[in-house]
Design a protein that fits this description.
It is a single chain. 32% of the residues lie in helices and 31% in strands. The chain is globular, with a radius of gyration of 19 Å. It contains seven helices and eleven strands. The N terminus is likely disordered. The chain has two domains: 82 residues, no CATH class; 106 residues, Aminopeptidase, CATH 3.40.630.30. It is of the alpha+beta class. Strands 1, 2, 3, 4, 5, 6, 7, 8, 9, 10 and 11 form an eleven-stranded mixed β-sheet that branches. Keywords: Acyltransferase, Transferase. This is GNAT family N-acetyltransferase.
Length: 257
């Protein structure tokens, strides 16, 4: 079972949010006080296109600030989304509730001590340096729209910290699993881990995750972090067995229709 942190460690949340922004960078970042307005003209990822408040005390003029942010999202052809984390002001969340917004897509951020994580003895995979090859594989494994290739390549190319691009490929059917590991000083983030539909429950996810974590540990990372949908029971059980713990949860809000 995953251990759940009862009292939010806000300094840890702030640090993980910061490395998360660097691990999945958007093309446009603007600030309204401590509210970060993240927008991408190419990729539709919610993390790249949302408003994130980074100070629980920054709660002035909420309605006006949401209205201003909405105009920026409209100019980009994006729906206005607010990402709620433990750093979000309570007044902001109350405003969203009272104004008929709906909450969706809860995600857990997990951390694990790389010195104590239980990594099984499995086939090791070395990272590729070919971004184009990795992007093609990632889109295939996720069954994503191939037209997203330029936007995804732009996101990955914009990652500044050292990054390992990991693939497992079948000689006959092509890529079957993919992930990328972003090492930001002593923290290693596992991003976009997926196994192709029809090849799940074969241990491929554990195999590629283990390869990425070993790569990060050899390079000096001390703590691994990753994000997983709160309703992904199988993944949560796997990460719990390895030794990951819940650091915090986040979720999105959108204007009700």
């Amino acid at each position: 079972m995953l251990a759940i942190v009862a009292d939010q460690n806000l300094p840890l949340v702030r640090r993980l949010e910061a490395v998360g922004f660097r691990a999945w960078p958007t093309s446009s970042v603007q600030y309204d006080g401590s509210w970060q307005i993240r927008l991408s003209g190419g990729h539709p990822s919610k993390r790249l296109n949302c408003v994130v408040a980074l100070d629980p005390s920054d709660s002035k003029d909420i309605s006006l600030r949401l209205e201003k942010a909405g105009r920026k999202f409209e100019a980009h052809g994006r729906p206005l989304l607010v990402r709620e984390t433990p750093l979000s002001p309570k007044a902001l969340i109350e405003e969203l509730k009272n104004d008929g917004w709906e909450r969706f897509d809860e995600t857990m951020t997990l951390t694990g001590d790389l010195s104590t994580l239980t990594l099984p003895d499995m086939l090791d995979h070395l990272p590729t340096h070919d971004i184009g090859r990795f992007v093609d594989a990632d889109l295939a494994v996720h069954a994503s729209d191939p037209s997203l290739k330029p936007a995804l390549a732009e996101v990955i190319s914009a990652i500044k910290p050292p990054t390992g691009l990991f693939l497992i490929e079948d000689p006959d059917s092509g890529p079957v699993a993919s992930t990328l590991c972003v090492q930001d000083n002593d923290l290693a983030g596992i991003m976009s881990l997926a196994v192709r539909s029809g090849r799940r429950r074969e241990g491929l996810g554990l195999e590629i995750l283990t390869s990425a974590l070993r790569w990060a540990r050899v390079r000096g990372a001390k703590t691994a972090w990753l994000q997983v949908a709160a309703d992904n029971t199988a993944a949560l059980q796997l990460y719990g067995k390895l030794g990951f713990q819940v650091a915090y949860r986040y979720r999105y809000w959108r204007k009700g229709t």
